[in-house]
Each structure stands twice: as structure tokens, then as C-alpha cells.
Write a structure and sequence with these properties.
The complex is a heterotrimer of chains A (about 300), B (about 160) and C (about 775).
Chain A: E1 8-10, H1 15-25, E2 29-32, H2 36-43, E3 52-55, E4 64-67, E5 70-74, H3 79-84, H4 95-102, H5 106-111, H6 114-119, H7 127-133, E6 137-142, E7 145-150, E8 155-157, E9 160-161, E10 168-174, E11 181-188, E12 198-206, E13 212-221, E14 228-229, H8 231-237, H9 244-252, H10 268-289
Parallel strand pairs in A: 1-3, 2-3
Antiparallel strand pairs in A: 4-5, 5-10, 6-7, 6-10, 8-9, 11-12, 12-13, 13-14
Helix pairs in contact in A: 4-7, 8-9, 9-10
Chain B: E1 3-9, E2 12-18, H1 24-31, E3 50-53, E4 56-59, E5 72-74, H2 87-95, H3 104-117, H4 125-131, H5 143-159
Parallel strand pairs in B: 1-5
Antiparallel strand pairs in B: 1-2, 3-4, 3-5
Chain C: H1 16-21, E1 36-42, E2 48-54, H2 56-60, E3 64-68, E4 101-102, E5 108-114, H3 117-125, E6 128-133, E7 159-161, E8 164-167, H4 170-176, E9 179-186, E10 199-204, E11 210-214, H5 219-230, E12 237-239, H6 258-269, E13 273-276, H7 279-283, E14 291-299, E15 305-317, H8 323-336, E16 344-352, H9 366-384, H10 388-394, H11 416-427, E17 442-451, E18 468-474, E19 480-483, H12 493-505, E20 512-514, H13 533-559, E21 567-570, E22 573-576, E23 579-585, H14 586-593, E24 598-601, E25 604-607, E26 617-622, E27 631-641, E28 647-657, H15 664-683, E29 716-721, H16 738-741, H17 743-755, H18 766-772
Helix pairs in contact in C: 8-9, 9-17, 12-13, 13-14, 15-17
The chains are: A alpha+beta (about 300), B alpha+beta (about 160), C alpha+beta (about 775).
């Protein structure tokens, strides 16, 4: 636990103020959303030199808006608020998001923020993978102004993203999805309060003949430094009529795209093996949401 | 730098001096003498520290006390009205859901929050288990806790009560 | 109100009310004025010598009141295990409170007491330690090889002990066998995961008398071991009984480092000192020991055991702690005793490594054995096409025979067969080998595992002191105060003992209150362990209540104008036998006993008898008369996802010969909680360490996986068979450990039934299942 001296807890009222504080305090400051991730690090003694905590709850970033077909989700929106938002419910194209939001226990859902989750740059988290499969981007503000970065370009390494220390992530933007789209998300975990051993998000868009006109597959969890877009899986299905055999093939080629790691939780081989199964199952679920039922023999 | 802040705990305004990194759990236990909220792991993994913040279940070990200002905090001490137990507390006693009791208060706070926002019908076995997925218990195997959830929900619906 | 309205009733726990409104009675809540906070500095290295410790900066930090280093602690080595007296020959005293040689990553090297936990923590960072790192060994077989680092001077080849037992003629037995099975089994290190951390407050006075509050499973053991570690007389240590503790499961059956360190800091500062473990510290200081078990079993084709041999290696870590006794219980109750076999041999090894130290954990060496034995039996039955129930019955003990371990005892009640039959009927067992072989990705199977022999306490065990005591006093309001050193760690000890005392006294269950006790005011009671409290402590509570009742009759006899032996009690009343209208309330009888010898009455003074005056009370201090065995069979149905290897438990039926159920809800609660622990052991729990540096990788609940409510099956059915054990209180014998022992092999056998693969290593992870199915691919 850090020492009791020389620490400040600030609650600015706007994101501009936050930026000013980040500029002023530099490396000594960190923003706090829900605090769940930060606390985990503090309790494990990983964050020692933190002097200034900047609490974001008053900067007005808790919202879910839907304007001109773009969803913008404020960075301090909690998981529970997002899951409960009428704007995102009953939309098969956003299924991956709602699937991902079901996994954590109630306490985490009530506390953790969407912005905090995305900004943590932990490949073991779920929401970033779901957002990525929806081609989302983040909006950030800094001393030089605001910018928008696609999530697929946002992550660099474990705990590392492209933002400067003086920039604040303010929004996640989920663009308009193609018509007749559905997405799904699956997480492999050992018990109900766990980081993903592996997770998979997929999105499928069908044309009026039932052909896949667009497919996205993103894999996260212990598969590398950042979530990976599994293009090989996508290529198997693009332009094709989905069949069980094709789904299975799409799953099988995921091993070309991911480089799982072995850690104390499980091995790379196991992650590889299940990735194939999960890609297939996630695709089945997404197609199911579009009314395409490819029933497997049980 | 320590600061004097006011926290709304169980409907009462409490003045307390806190440091920026101090958690709500620490402040409840060490500054305010509210010992019902327990520390089981201090890393948001066990649920023993669960309190309600504006009616929502949260891990108090992961809340900076300073950020709890302006919110309504409810701890287990705020449930029973004098001698009358909250229905969830009562159900816990009756179904045998209390063994060592260390997880009990956190469980009750989680369950109360869940039942308050899921009050139209008795939860299924699966729903009840999902509700407490963030609370660990090593003694009971959860079976009688699930029984208590469904008993409390049944009674609530039977009495048409908004409480509990 | 007869005894049966209390015994066999799910009387509400008297402490449940307190626990649901906040639970003040936990040791973690003890606060004393002027209390200081202690923290321990722990070695980052698994094996090292301390060359130099510089505490000067720490001592100067404002708020720091004392620092403790190895040079200041007593030099006499001790063993920390509560239930074995210090002089016991089989125990291994190899610990110091602080040592200048550290033998596991996390062993304490210094301690600080300060005015707040934060300042104490900050002070730790100001202590400078120069370590000389030494070669270390983490593998329990490598540790025995020549050239391995020597961990303790007294143990060549790092073997702490190596007992062996043999009966009959093993070689001839194998020659007579029609089939021989040889298999190796491996179990992992798991953590007890009691939810209340280890915590203590120790206060001292100017004479060096200590008062101790601790989250502990044994008052008298803590007293004795603390005195031993500090090298002071036991009379200088008083341990206060907490109303309850937040779980123990065997993990609080030894003196931690915290009590002696807290004591020394208290004596130094002349203030009370509190030390609470962080969850990380708990994870790295107690565990169930990992075992390797090699079984060689010879059977006739009809399933009769003719030869059984086993070799067991227990990794006890840096210090022996429980490793000596766990090994013996494992060998005896895990391997040699549960079934009959004319020719047997067992060799055990407790070996030192630079891994973390271990402790007790429900089952105490036998979960590891049962995993091996019960899995192999399943394998034997499969190969020989024998029914797993008939096989076990063929080789089992019988009711009425001498106890296989202590021949002066008899298996007066022994309903193993009933457990098997009733359990099988409940789950719908059809021999278990034709299921789960269908097509599709999810397969189901049912498995069976048993613990045919267990203990009710430790009478008959060498070097374990089994004894119980109770004091009960009746009050003028008809209630009774029961005072016992027995710890309630959540399993309902207080409730059970109150029920037993109430039933014996003849008062309502709520009329008996478990009250204050400490090591100065009550007779000895052994720890809450070894499934002993209902049977052993229950017998003491019953005897004390019986003595109080006898005294009650002495007073009531003259009041009811009859002889004391012509009375009985029930529902709070004293009755003349056969004339229930001739009665007095117990309260009135007690009032009489506590009234003046001479009373003023309207027409003068009335004299009563001096004989029937005084506190109506009873005291008992006794060892149990026997060590009756329950018996257990568990049937588990699982579903395996053959694409991911994930296992779901669908149904559980647990059958147990319990003698007599004292509290049904409490008994079910033991079975359900035991299943959570056994299932976690079977499928997910694993306390893993970095093999390069001994650091713990799974020391929080995110990394260490134990079952939540969602992983548990929706249904666990308990079947209790009441055989009415004559030596038990109201016929009861024990319950709580077998239900944590059998889940792992039952699950392993169910997995075999579902998918046809045997996994002989715990935990059975999804990865191991896919590997066994040949399905792991790049």
C-alpha cells in the first residue's frame, strides 16, 4: 500500500479540467474511472509512485447516445448502465457487447467503466474485443485537442496504447453496422469471476440471399499482447453461404492468426484448440440472431 | 493530504478524515467502527466487502473513500429497522444459510440490491446463482444461500412489499 | 418436550442473528485501546541466509514503536501443530519464530509494530536485509536425491520422516493375484480459503502474562504452542475463546508466525499488538500438501483384494508443520484401513522442499489417498467387469467387528452397505458403465467414490491428545450457561453442543447459551478438527449437563417430596416420573438452590436444607469411550463438453452413516460445503509457484480459482443413515470430513464414465481432458 503522504484526490468538473491536471502533474497522476483495475494494481503493490488521483465521476462522461446511427458511449458509463440502456438492447448487431457485459459479477458491472476497461489495454479484458468486432473507435482529448482513433490501431502492447499521458479517453464510438448484422461474444473462463483465458467476438452481415457480405472475427484473452483480428477466419466466410462445414473451417484457421501464450492459467495449445471451437460457436450464435439456425447434432 | 469529508452512511451524515488512497472499506471499519463490512481479500475477488452505493452492490475495497462523497452508502448495519430484521436477513437465518458468517453480510447486501431491481417474480436457481457470482463462500456450498434468495423473493412478492 | 424435539431438529443457530446483522464476534473485530499494528517482512527468496539486517531507518520512522529481528527471538525450536503436545516423539520441532536462514519465499525475517498498519507497512520498506541466496529445490523427488540442497540439518536427503507398515506376506499376495494394477496419482497444492484471514491480538502485562485473541481452531493448543515458542510457562498465556471464527477447515490448527511475533512486540512495547494477514499472506502460509501416490494392487478375478502396496510422497515444504501427522493419517485412513486385505504394505515419505509450508485441511491427507484408491478401484472394476458397489462391499469391514486400527474398539455401528444402496437408488445408478458413450459434443457420466472408514475424533491415535471438557451452570431464569473451549468455526459447533446439552438437561434448545470461556476458566478441549466435535465434545457437553441435572434432582427431590432418582426433566420442567402433574419449573428449582438457608415467611422463619443450596452446575472432563466410524458413499453425475474439456457437475447424492443427526440443516450444510471444496479440488484449485524463483503465482482470488455459486450443481442430496451409535451423544458419530474427501474421485470416475479417459492428476482441468482425448492441437 502506498504511503499516506503527498497524495491528492481531485474531482474536476469537465474533461478540459482533467487534461489541465494531467498536463500539470504528468507522471504522478492517474485518472480513475470505476477504480476496479487501479485497485487491483494498488493492492498488488504494482503502483507505487502515484501521487495524484483524478476522479472522473463529475466530468459528465456517463451517457449512451445514439445520433446519426452512431452510438457514443461516455467513458465513465458503467457496464451495468450500458447493459441496461434501451438504446443497445434488442439489437442483434450489438449482441457481442451485451454478451460481454453478462460475464462479470454484479459488483464489477456496477463499478467498472467502459472507458476504464478500454484504456487499461489489458488483452485479457472482454469489452475491447467486443468493441473491436464492431469497428469501434475511441475519442480522446488532450492539450492539442481532440482526436478519434480506431480501436484496431489503439493498442500497442500489454498495458500500452497510443494515447499520451496527457490525453483523456472520453468516448467509445460504435459506428453504424451493416443491415442484417448480428454479433456475438464468448469467453472462456475457469469460474464466474475470472479474466478470459480466451475470448472471441464475431460479427456477420448477410445480404438478402443469405450470403455473408461481411464478417469480422476478433480474438482476445491469452493470445498475445493485443486482441487480434482473425482475418483468415473472415476470409473463409466472406461471400459464401454459411454452412456448418464452413463455420468449422473458419474456426480451424484461427490458428493462422493468433499466437497464444502459455501461462500459469493454461497452455498455448489449449487456447489454440478452444479458439477454433469458440469461433465456430460464436458464429453460430450470431447467425442464430439473424434467424439462420445451423443446428449441430447434439 | 488527509481531508475531512462527509459521507452519507445508512442515511446519516458522517464526518471523517481520510487520505486519498484510503478505501471505503478501510474508512467504514477503521474510522467509523462499522465492522459489518468485512475484508476477505482486499482485491475485489471475494465479495465480503460488498456495500450498496446508491442502491447498487459494489466492492467497498475498490472504492476510494473520497469518491464516495455525495452518494448514499448502505451497509449491513443499515438494513434492520430496530429489532425487525430485513427479509433477506431473516431468510438467511431460517434456511441455514449462515455457517461461519464471514461472507454473510456481503452476500446479503448483494442479494438485497438484486431483489430490489428484480422484484417481479421469484428468481430461478440459475438467476439466483448469477446474482451472487461475485460473492465467494467456502462453508455452505451456496445451496442454502440460494434457498434464502428464493425464500426472501417469495415472501416479498406474497406481501407485495417494496421493502427488502 | 422429549429429547427428540431437540435432537434431529434444525434448531436455528444461536449465532446466526449476530452474523446477519454484522457479526461482531469475529477475532478480526477485536480492538483494544492503545493497540499497535504489526506487519511482517518476508523473504523474497526460497532459500537464503541473512547476513545483515539494518532496521535503523525503520526504527526512526514516526509512529514505529518496535522492530523485531531474528537475533531477538528464543532459540529453542518448536513444532506448531496444536493437537500434538510439544514432547510428542513423532513431531518434528524445526521452526523458530524468526530465523536467519529462510527456507521458503514468504518466510518472515523481521517485524514492525507501529501506530497504524500503513506506517508499519512503510517501515518494512525501510528495513534493509542482505541475503545470501542459497541453492533451492522445489521438486519433492529431486529433493531426496544426492546433491540436493540440504534444507534442515537434522534431515539427511531432506527426508523428515519415512514410516512404513506391512501386514501379511505381500509377495505371496501378488503371486496369488489374478490381476495386478499399477498406477501413479498426483495431487496438487490447494489453499484452505477460510474467508476470515488469520489475525491475532496479543496483550501483555508487566509480569509477562499474555492474553491472546486469535482466529484459531484451538484455544489450549495455541496456549501451549505459544508458550513453547516463547519458552515461557503455559500459565503465562491466556487465550480467549472467540464467539466464532470465520472459517478454519484445518488451516488454523497451528501457531502461525503472527501470534509469537505479536507477543514479542507486545512485550517490547507494553501495548497490545494486532497482526492481520493479507489474503496474499494467507495463501502462502497454509495449504493442503501435494502428494504423489503409487499404488500396486493385486485382486482375484472375483474382486477380492489379495495384495495392496502403496508408496506416498508428501511435499511438506520448508518446515514439517503438519506433514508428520498428515502422512500417517493418509497412510492409515487413506490406504491401509478403509478396506480389508490380508497382505498390505505402505511406505510414506514426508520430504522437505523450499516450497511453502503446509497446514491442515479437511480430510488431512486422505483426500489425496482417496483420489488414488477410489479411482483405481473404478479402473479395476471396469477391467474385470465387476460392479463397483459389490466390489467395495466384498472388501469392506462389517458391523460388529473390531476396529481395524484400534482393536479394543469395535465397529458397533457400521452401515457402509446402506450408504451404497441408498445412494445408488437416489441417483439412479445402473452399474455406471453404459452411459455417456453416445454421439454429440456433450457426454454424461456417473461416478462413485467412498470413504469406508473415518474417525470421530482422535482417541487411539499416537501422540494426539483427545480430550473434551465442559462446564454448565443453570440460571434462576431457567436458562443454562454452557462454557467450553470448543471453537465454532462455522460448522455449527456451538449450535450442536447447545442442542445436546439442552436435550440432556430437558430445557428448550434456546435456553442453553454458549458463553465466555478462556484457557483459565474451562477444562481442556481438543481442537475443532478430525470431525470430532459432535462426538467428543458432544459427549462432554452431555456429561456436564447430566451432572447438572443430577444436582438439579438433588434440589428438586425434597421440593417434590420424592427421591432424586424418581425425577425426570423435559421442556424446562422437572417431573416426578409417571406423574407429570407433579412438577416444578427448572427455574424455580434453581431459585430454591440459590435462596437463603433461612427465609422470612408470614408466620416466622423457614429453614431449608443447606445440602440443596448452591450453584446448580455440572462439570465434565473426559476422553471419548471409542472412535466410531461413519461410512460414506457419493454418487456424482457430470457432463463433459468434449470440445472444450469443461466439466459441469449436474447432480450429487451423498450417503453417510452418521449415527444420529443432531441438526439436519447443519448436517446438510456440511455436505454441501464439503462438495464445494472437493469439487474445487477436483477441477480447478491449484496453488502454483514460479519454478525459477519460488514466487506464488496464484495468491489472490482472481488467480486462484475456487467454485462460485455458478459452478456448483443445482442439486446436492444428502442421505443420512441413522445407525444409533451407542457411544455417541444421542447416538451421533461424525460427519464433516468425508464429504470433502469423496468428491474428487467421484468426479474423476464420473468423467471416465462420460468420456472413457482416466486422469490421474489433480486438478482435472479442461486442458487435461482434451489432452487425454487426443484433441489438443496447435
Amino acid at each position: 500500500m502506498p504511503s499516506a503522504t503527498g497524495k491528492e484526490f481531485l474531482q474536476p468538473n469537465s474533461h478540459q479540467e482533467v487534461v489541465e491536471l494531467l498536463v500539470k502533474h504528468g507522471e504522478r497522476a492517474l485518472v480513475v474511472g470505476g477504480g476496479t483495475f487501479l485497485h487491483g494494481l494498488l493492492a498488488r503493490g504494482v503502483l507505487h509512485d502515484l501521487d495524484v488521483l483524478i476522479d472522473l465521476q463529475k466530468v459528465g462522461l456517463s451517457y449512451v447516445k445514439h445520433e446519426r446511427d452512431v452510438f457514443s458511449i461516455g467513458a465513465t458509463t458503467t457496464f451495468a448502465e450500458l447493459a441496461a440502456s434501451e438504446r443497445v438492447q434488442n439489437r442483434p448487431e450489438l449482441g457481442a457487447l451485451l454478451d460481454a457485459l453478462q460475464y462479470p459479477p454484479a459488483q464489477i458491472r456496477n463499478m467498472a467503466t467502459v472507458g476504464g476497461c478500454v484504456a487499461s489495454a489489458t488483452p485479457l479484458f472482454d469489452l475491447p474485443v467486443a468493441f473491436m468486432v464492431l469497428d469501434s473507435s475511441v475519442r480522446a482529448v488532450g492539450p492539442k485537442g481532440a482526436r478519434e482513433i480506431g480501436l484496431h490501431k489503439f493498442y500497442l502492447d500489454y498495458f500500452e496504447h497510443v494515447l499520451e499521458r496527457t490525453e483523456l479517453l472520453t468516448e467509445i464510438l460504435v459506428p453504424r453496422q451493416l443491415s442484417r448484422s448480428a454479433s456475438a461474444f464468448l469467453k472462456l473462463e475457469t469460474n464466474a469471476n475470472d479474466l478470459a483465458l480466451l475470448n472471441v467476438a464475431v460479427r456477420v452481415a448477410l445480404d438478402d440471399k443469405g450470403t455473408c457480405r461481411d464478417v469480422r472475427v476478433v480474438v482476445g484473452g491469452g493470445i498475445g499482447k493485443v486482441p487480434v483480428r482473425a482475418v483468415s477466419c473472415e476470409d473463409v466466410l466472406k461471400g459464401q453461404q454459411p454452412t456448418l462445414a464452413l463455420l468449422k473451417e473458419s474456426g480451424n484457421v484461427v490458428s493462422f492468426d493468433i499466437h497464444p501464450v502459455s501461462d500459469f492459467r493454461t497452455s498455448a495449445k489449449y487456447r489454440s484448440t478452444v479458439a477454433k471451437v469458440f469461433v465456430r460457436r460464436a458464429l453460430l450464435r450470431a447467425l442464430d440472431r439473424l434467424g439462420v439456425h445451423l443446428d449441430e447434432p447434439s | 493530504m488527509k481531508k475531512i469529508i462527509n459521507l452519507d452512511i445508512n442515511g446519516q451524515s458522517q464526518e471523517v478524515t481520510v487520505a486519498p488512497h484510503q478505501t471505503l472499506l478501510q474508512v467504514l471499519r477503521d474510522e467509523l467502527g462499522l465492522l459489518g463490512t468485512k475484508k476477505g481479500c482486499d482485491t475485489g475477488g471475494c465479495g465480503c466487502c460488498t456495500v450498496q452505493v446508491d442502491g447498487k452492490a459494489m466492492y467497498s475495497c475498490m472504492i476510494f473513500a473520497m469518491s464516495a462523497q455525495g452518494k448514499k452508502i448502505t451497509t449491513v448495519e443499515g438494513l434492520a429497522e430496530s429489532a425487525v430484521l430485513d427479509p433477506v436477513q431473516q431468510a438467511f437465518i431460517e434456511t441455514g444459510a449462515v455457517q461461519c458468517g464471514y461472507c454473510t453480510c456481503g452476500m446479503i447486501m448483494t442479494i438485497k440490491a438484486y431483489l430490489s431491481s428484480n422484484n417481479s417474480r421469484v428468481p430461478s436457481d440459475l438467476e439466483a446463482r448469477q446474482a451472487i457470482a461475485g460473492n465467494l463462500c467456502r462453508c455452505t456450498g451456496y445451496q442454502k444461500i440460494v434457498d434464502a434468495i428464493r425464500l426472501a423473493a417469495t415472501r416479498r412478492i406474497a406481501t407485495g412489499s417494496q421493502k427488502g | 418436550m422429549s429429547e427428540t424435539s431437540i435432537i434431529g431438529t434444525s434448531v436455528l443457530r444461536p449465532d446466526a442473528y449476530d452474523k446477519v446483522i454484522g457479526g461482531r464476534g469475529f477475532p478480526v473485530n477485536v480492538r483494544l485501546p492503545g493497540m499497535l499494528h504489526g506487519k511482517l517482512l518476508r523473504s523474497p527468496y526460497p532459500h537464503a541466509r541473512i547476513l545483515r539486517i539494518d532496521t535503523s531507518k525503520a526504527e526512526r520512522l514516526p509512529g514505529v514503536r518496535a522492530v523485531l529481528v531474528p537475533s531477538e527471538v528464543p532459540k529453542k525450536k518448536f513444532h506448531p501443530v496444536f493437537f500434538s503436545p510439544g514432547m510428542a516423539a513423532s513431531m518434528i520441532p524445526d521452526m523458530l519464530i524468526l530465523s536467519d536462514t529462510v527456507r521458503f519465499a514468504g518466510e518472515p525475517v523481521a517485524a514492525v509494530a507501529a501506530t497504524s498498519p500503513e506506517i508499519a507497512e512503510e517501515a518494512l520498506e525501510l528495513i534493509h536485509v542482505d541475503y545470501e541466496q542459497l541453492p533451492f529445490v522445489l521438486d519433492p523427488e529431486a529433493t531426496m536425491k544426492p546433491g540436493a540442497p540440504q534444507i534442515h540439518q537434522h534431515a539427511p536427503n531432506n527426508i523428515a520422516m519415512a514410516p512404513a507398515f506391512a501386514f501379511g506376506d505381500l509377495q505371496r499376495g501378488f503371486e496369488e493375484a489374478d490381476y495386478i494394477f499399477e498406477n501413479t496419482y498426483q495431487t496438487q497444492r490447494v489453499h484452505t480459503c477460510y474467508m476470515e484471514p488469520r489475525v491475532c491480538v496479543v496483550d501483555s502485562d508487566t509480569f509477562g502474562n499474555l492474553t491472546v485473541w486469535s482466529s484459531t481452531q484451538h484455544l489450549f493448543g495455541l496456549r501451549e504452542k505459544l508458550a513453547s515458542a516463547l519458552d515461557i510457562p503455559v500459565s503465562k498465556v491466556r487465550v480467549v475463546r472467540p464467539p466464532y471464527i470465520g472459517g478454519g477447515f484445518g488451516g488454523k490448527l497451528d501457531i502461525g508466525f503472527i501470534e509469537p511475533i505479536s507477543a514479542l512486540l507486545s512485550m517490547k512495547t507494553r501495548r497490545p499488538v494486532r497482526i492481520e494477514h493479507t489474503r496474499y499472506e494467507d495463501f502462502i502460509t497454509t495449504a493442503r500438501n501435494p502428494f504423489k501416490v503409487v499404488l500396486k494392487t493385486g485382486v482375484k478375478k472375483d474382486g477380492t483384494f489379495v495384495a495392496r502396496s502403496a508408496k506416498s510422497i508428501l511435499d511438506t515444504g520448508a518446515h514439517a508443520t503438519h506433514g508428520a501427522v498428515v502422512l500417517m493419517v493418509h497412510g492409515m485412513y487413506g490406504f491401509l484401513l478403509p478396506y480389508r486385505c490380508p497382505n498390505s504394505k505402505w511406505e510414506g515419505f514426508t520430504v522437505y522442499t523450499n516450497n511453502m509450508i503446509g497446514g491442515g485441511f479437511r480430510g488431512y491427507g486422505v483426500p489425496q489417498a482417496a483420489f488414488a484408491v477410489e479411482s483405481q478401484i473404478d479402473e479395476i472394476c471396469e477391467k474385470l467387469q465387476l460392479d463397483p458397489i459389490e466390489f467395495r462391499l466384498k472388501n469392506s469391514h462389517s458391523e460388529g467387528q473390531p476396529h481395524p486400527f484400534e482393536p479394543s474398539f469395535k465397529l458397533d455401528t457400521y452401515r457402509f452397505a446402506d450408504c451404497l444402496k441408498q445412494g445408488a437408488a437416489q441417483i439412479g445408478w445402473s452399474g455406471g458403465r453404459s452411459r455417456g458413450k453416445g454421439a454429440g459434443t456433450k457426454r454424461r457420466g456417473i461416478g462413485l467414490a467412498c470413504q469406508p472408514l473415518w474417525v470421530s475424533g482422535c482417541v487411539g491415535f499416537p501422540d494426539i491428545y483427545e480430550h473434551s471438557g465442559a462446564v454448565i451452570k443453570l440460571n434462576t431464569d431457567g436458562t443454562a450457561d454452557l462454557s467450553m473451549a470448543t471453537i465454532d468455526m462455522g460448522s455449527g459447533q456451538t449450535t450442536t453442543l447447545s442442542q445436546v446439552a439442552a436435550a440432556e438437561l430437558g430445557v428448550p434448545a434456546e435456553a442453553v447459551r454458549m458463553t465466555y470461556a478462556d484457557t483459565e476458566t474451562v477444562p481442556f478441549d481438543a481442537p475443532s478438527h478430525a470431525s470430532r466435535v459432535t462426538y467428543s465434545a458432544g459427549n462432554a457437553a452431555k456429561a456436564a449437563a447430566g451432572a447438572a441435572k443430577k444436582r438439579l434432582f438433588d434440589v428438586a427431590g425434597p421440593m417434590l417430596k420424592t427421591t432424586p432418582d424418581n425425577l425426570e426433566t423435559g421442556g424446562g420442567w422437572v417431573y416426578v416420573k409417571g406423574a407429570t402433574d407433579k412438577k416444578l419449573s427448572i427455574a424455580d428449582v434453581v431459585k430454591q438452590a440459590e435462596s437463603p438457608y433461612v427465609r422470612m415467611v408470614p408466620d416466622g422463619m423457614q429453614r431449608t436444607s443447606l445440602q440443596e443450596k448452591g450453584t446448580v452446575m455440572g462439570i465434565a472432563s473426559l476422553a471419548p469411550a471409542a472412535n466410531p466410524s461413519p461410512a460414506t458413499a457419493e454418487f456424482v453425475e457430470v457432463e463433459v463438453d468434449t470440445e472444450t474439456g469443461e466439466v459441469k457437475v449436474l447432480r450429487v447424492v451423498y450417503a453417510h452413516d452418521i449415527g444420529r443427526v443432531i441438526n439436519p440443516a447443519g448436517a446438510e450444510g456440511q455436505v454441501e460445503g464439503g462438495f464445494q471444496q472437493g469439487m474445487g479440488y477436483a477441477l480447478m484449485e491449484n496453488l502454483v509457484f514460479d519454478q525459477d524463483n519460488g514466487a506464488c503465482l496464484a495468491a489472490d482470488f482472481l488467480s486462484y480459482k475456487m467454485p462460485t455459486a455458478l459452478e456448483m450443481p443445482p442439486e446436492i442430496k444428502s442421505v443420512f443413515i441413522e445407525s444409533n451409535e451407542p457411544t455417541g451423544p444421542f447416538g451421533a458419530k461424525s460427519l464433516s470430513e468425508p464429504c470433502a474427501i469423496v468428491p474428487a474421485p467421484a468426479i474423476a470416475n464420473a468423467i471416465y464414465d462420460a468420456i472413457g479417459v482416466r486422469i490421474r492428476e489433480l486438478p482435472i482441468t479442461p486442458e487435461k481432458i482434451l489432452a487425454a482425448l487426443g484433441k489438443l492441437s496447435e
